[in-house]
Amino acid sequence: MSKRRDADDHFSDAYSLSSADETLQHYRAWAATYDKEIGEDNDYAQPRRCAEALHAVAPAGSIRILDAGCGTGLSGVALAAAGYSNLTGCDFSPEMLEQAATKGVYRTLFETDLNEGLANVDDESYDAVTAVGVFSFGHVLADACDGLLRVIKPGGHFVIGLNEKFWNEGALPAKIDQLSSSGFIQEIIREHGDHLPGHQVMGWVLVLKKC
Q1: What confidence score (pLDDT) does residue 7 get?
Q2: Architecture category of domain 3-210 in CATH
Q3: pTM for this structure?
Q4: Which long-range contacts (C-beta less than 8 Å, at least 24 apart) are formed by 36-43?
């Protein structure tokens, strides 16, 4: 089996995960080759798009950012390239966090299940949270927005990048509409564009401001 075929298998399997254990096993197997297969071979666009979207609403520099579901750190590299220096990363997979540590862009990394609400993180402790490629089937679900928004300071920003397949599933846009209607957030940016061009997958970037 060719390397490209292996990459396709990893990618397609990611959309069929249905449990936390399946997710851990999947990324344990993928961690060592993820950057090449997704970042290099398939031109993963969302890290750059999300970093640019944050830069459009929040000045680069020392603002404190939580890169939630940071994976191997591709999003952290994009944020650092955009001028952000105070980065913390977290992920469900210890193997992915090992890869993220090699990037040299995070001050701190920790393991967590975002679906459990970030119980060990203080309220309003970050200026921004990014969730790049995090909301998806068998990964992080729409209700995780509550825990992620809890740790953002009032006036801070929540940046989401996701594939259009999960967006079209409907749970996340419904959650965002609910939070907007309640006055808890204000949607600043919603842009459709490239997600993973190498697989011809499109996606959305959103920037939400915590009111």
Answers
A1: 43
A2: 3-Layer(aba) Sandwich (3.40)
A3: 0.88
A4: 37/3, 37/6, 37/7, 37/10, 37/11, 38/7, 38/11, 38/74, 38/196, 39/74, 41/4, 41/7, 41/198, 42/7, 42/11, 42/196, 42/197, 42/198, 42/199, 43/194, 43/196, 43/197, 43/198
